[in-house]
Amino acid sequence: MQDSSSNDLPGLTLVLASQSPRRSELLRQIGVEFKCYPVDIDESPHPEESASDLVLRLAVEKAQAAHQRYPRVPNHLFLGADTIGLLDDKVLAKPRNFYDFASMLRKMSGRTHQVLSAVALVGDGFQETILDRSDVTFRTIRECEIEQYWHSGEPQDKAGGYGIQGLGAIFVEKIIGSYSGIVGLPLQSTAELLRMAGIQVWNRVEGKA
Ligand SMILES: Cc1cn([C@H]2C[C@H](O)[C@@H](COP(=O)(O)OP(=O)(O)OP(=O)(O)O)O2)c(=O)[nH]c1=O
Is 89 known to be catalytic? Predict the structure, then answer.
């Protein structure tokens, strides 16, 4: 178990069920205090499962897995999240290899795809979810850029094979939706979810951007 920021919350303790450094960074950005407890789950889709059902189920399963495996202590809530891309109703997951990635990027070139991010908050007798959806339009991507981008090492662990927060930004012509949702944790709706559950945001008052 890994500690992140000061965790001495008077009431509820939040546990982020994620290994993603981006999700930790986003939660810290809005001044939430939490602990990190990454879990590994099977992320394969069920037959006939829709993209939104898949992303919501995986967010819930990550939060539930952390809830079950974490030492039994009262007043803990577990936050799980999942992100996938979607093009022509087909899921754009993390690329399995270069060929998978290249074919994905060629299809995304010059077109608009969707990014779905689901967030689940789970505790004893408590479960709430949100689903965030954004549209991302790519400019035309040159063939040589596909290989160069792959060798940067950035696409490998990202849904849709790119990071809008990194080098992948140069492909992004337009977004409609939530930037933080595309990166992996939609902050506006996550903050609402946390507030509803009684977890404070903006704990860090001195924070300067
Ligand atoms: C589209 C896009 C995705 N991503 C990332 C967000 C997610 O971390 C990742 C999708 O994989 P996920 O399976 O959602 O998350 P993860 O494996 O990184 O972490 P964990 O399951 O432990 O929470 O893709 C970006 O960082 N930038 C982007 O622009």
Answer: no
Confidence label for 11 from pLDDT (cuts 50, 70 and 90): confident
Please tell me whether the overall predicted TM-score, pTM, comes out greater than 0.90 for this model: yes
What does the chain come to in residues? 209
Residue 202, SS3 per DSSP: coil
Amino acid at 40: D
Q: Is 113 in the pocket of ligand 1 (CB under 6 A)?
A: no
Confirm if 104 and 92 have CB atoms less than 8 A apart: yes
158-184 tens-digit pLDDT: 999 999 999 999 999 999 999 999 999
Catalytic residue among 82, 124, 132, 157: 82
In the chain the domains, ranked by start, together with CATH numbers, are 2-197 (3.90.950.10)
Using DSSP's 3-state secondary structure scheme, residue 87 falls into strand
Q: Whose CA is nearest to atom 16 of ligand 1?
A: 20
